[in-house]
Amino acid sequence: MTIVFYTASAVAIIATILMLTRANAVHALLDLIVSLLAVAVIFFVLGAPFVAALEVIIYAGAIMVLFVFVVMLLNLGEPATRAERALLRPSMWIVPSVFAAILLAEFIWLLVSGDVPPSAVAGIEAKETGMALFGQYLIGVELASMLLLGGLVAAYHLGWRKVPQTEATHVSHP
Amino acid sequence: MNVTEQDFIALLPLLILAATAIAVMLGVAVRRSHALSASIAFAGLVISFGSIWIAAPELPRQVTPLLILDRYALFYIALLTVSSMVFILLAHGYFEKSDDDHDEMYILMLVATLGGAVLVSSSHFASLFLGLELLSVALYGMIAYPRRRPLPLEAGIKYLVLAAVSAAFLLFGMALVYGAFGTMRFDEIAAQLSRPGFDRWLVLPGMALIITGFGFKLALAPFHIWTPDVYEGAPAPVTAYVATVSKGAMFALLLRYFYKTGGHQQAPLFVVFSVIAIASMFAGNILALLQDNVKRILAYSSIAHLGYLLVAFQASGDLAPMAVGFYLVSYFVTTLGAFGIVAVLSDGGRDADLLDDYRGLFWRRPVVAAVFTAMLFSLAGIPVTVGFVGKFYLVAAGASAGLWSLVVILVVTSGIGLFYYLRIVVAIYSEASQAKAGPVIGAPAVAALIFLTAALVYLGLFPQPLLALIRGLTFG
Question: pTM of the predicted model, to two decimals?
Answer without folding.
Answer: 0.90
